Structures are given as structure tokens and as C-alpha cells.
User: Fold this.
Amino acid sequence: MTDISHENVPSRARRRFPGISSRAYEHPADRSALVALRRLTGFDTVFKALSGLLPERSLRLLFLSDSVRVSEAQFAHLHDMLRDACYILDLEKVPPMYVKQDPQPNAMCIGMDEPIVVVTTGLVELLDEEEMRAVVGHEVGHALSGHSVYRTILLFLTNLAVKVAWIPLGNVAIMAIVTALREWFRKSELSADRAGLLVGQDIQASMRGLMKIAGGNHLHEMNVDAFLAQADEYEKGGDLRDSVLKILNVLPRSHPFTTVRAAELKKWSETRDFQRIMDGHYPRRDEDKDASVSDSLRESASHYADTVRTSKDPLMKLVGDIAGGAGDLGGKLRDKFTGGGGGAKGGAGGSATTDGGGTPEGPQNPEEGPRKA
Assistant:
């Protein structure tokens, strides 16, 4: 990494956030995990020791030898964007950035000692300047939060799980850890999306970028409002069978679904928390050591409680009903699973609804390709 200078400031006026802590934009579940990890005595020492077992040096050599390093001489526009993002989020050093030949739109921030940012040619060719600025800010947000450490561990464990699959129960133990890391990492992606918005400061560009990642470079054929409507339909549509299939579909993924990311980012951009950051009121990183683990956990628990209470998903609504002491649980379960609305109100007077379709098929989950931005 190289020291950042404050030349080549953003190409248009943007608010800068001196000393901003990543806690300002982190998703509550992501923040509570990170605060707890940062407070563990010897945490840094353990992971520094672990880094010797991970293929980080190999990855760095691979990108250095087989990708294009971004600089003033190569991909200069990306070099400026990267410096801009570090300037706005006040990241002390600019991480190395590489462009890798790959038609699949993708970006990542990896590394334990020092993060490196990698973007594919597919992504560079897909996005315009403002959309790409949000993606670069997304990756710098990962670096500021320290996500690159856990992403590297996730990559290592995923590869290890394949190698020990032949050992009885060995794969099961590792995949349990991988599954937990993936759940955390999906929340960290929502955090990084917020960082990208703080860097780009253009919600429409962020929405367009996510839409292009989902549907390609055909903006004249797409509409942001319609795209967000898909997320709403996805959340509230179907019955309990669909809710279960949603969970099974997302388990092997390291990223949330694109429409969900867009909806979450749009929702956050309209909150008072976002406006307070834009007004210059945010936690500073020199206060991170005093951050309360219990407060972060309470905030995370409160967030999940609010999610259950306000969710339109059939399973979450049922959970909320049960927690609220709703009556006729058997009738609710029957109607939720079958999609029936004919109801169990009035006890015996309610008619059962069946679909005669037997057991639903499991989700079709082809092996997931490279993760999106």
C-alpha cells in the first residue's frame, strides 16, 4: 500500500468524512460481530499467525503476474476513483488495485496483512463512471471495515472443504464454519454497499450499477422502480414453502440477491442515520476502542426484531404472529404453507385449503459462479 496524498480530489464536489469509523455505515449484524472480534485480546496476533497458513502471498503474486495493476500509467481513471474513495472515507493508505481478465462482472477485496482490490474486465466494461465509483467505494468500505481478513479466511476454508470432503465428518465441520461466515459476509456486503453510496453520493448510480449486475448493459430496457418492485414481490410473495426455498437458495451464496441489495440500500439512503452522516455527525475511528459490545449486540437484536415485525415474508410474518401470541396456530400454519386465505377464522367454520401438489421440489441451485461486486 502507498501513502495517500490529497491531490486529485474527487472530480465533482462530494462531502468528505474525516476520521469516519466503519461503524457509521455497517449493518447492525455486521457491526456487532466486528466490534466483538476487535475487542478480543490477542485477536490481531492470532490472525497474523494464521496468515502464514493462508495462500495470501500466492494470491498477491498471482495478481501481480497475471493481471494489470492500476496506476497513473494503467487504467488511470480507476486509479483516480480509488484515490477519491480513500480520500472521502479518509483511508490512510491506498490499497493496490488490479484489473483481471474475466467476462464475469465481479470485484473483491482480499488480504490479511494489507488488503488488495481486484475488479474484472467484465465489470469495468459494464459500468459507467459514477456506477463504477460506487463499486470502488464498496471495496474501499470492505478495506476500512477489515472485511478483507475474513473474506480471505472464507476463501481458504471453502477450498479446504473441497480437499477434505473425503474425510468422514471433516467436510461437515468445516462447512458449518463456512455457512456461518457466509451469513455474516452477506451482511457485510450490505455494509459495503452503504460505503459505496457514501463515496459516490449518488443513489441513482448505485441503483443502476446493481441493476446492470443483475441484467447487463441494457439500461434502456430496465427501470429502477420496476427493479425495486421485484424485491418487494420477492419478499412478500408465495407461502411458507417459498420462504423455505428462499433460505435454501441463499445459503450457498456469499452475497445477498441483487434486488434485495438494491432495496436495502434504497431504504438506508432514506433513513435519518444516513442523513446524519451526510451532515457530518458520525462515530470516529479513534473511538472504536471504546465501542460497547453489549450495545452493538442489543442494536443487532433490535434490528432483527424489527425485521421480523415489519417483514412481508410469510415465514417472518408467522414468526411475528407466534411471538405475539396469535391464536389458532394450526390454522395459520396450514394456510401459510398452502397459500390459502380461506381461513381458519371462527374455528370449525374455516375451510381447509389444499393444492394437491404433493411435496414441493427442492431449489435448483447450480454451482454459483464468481460473486458479484
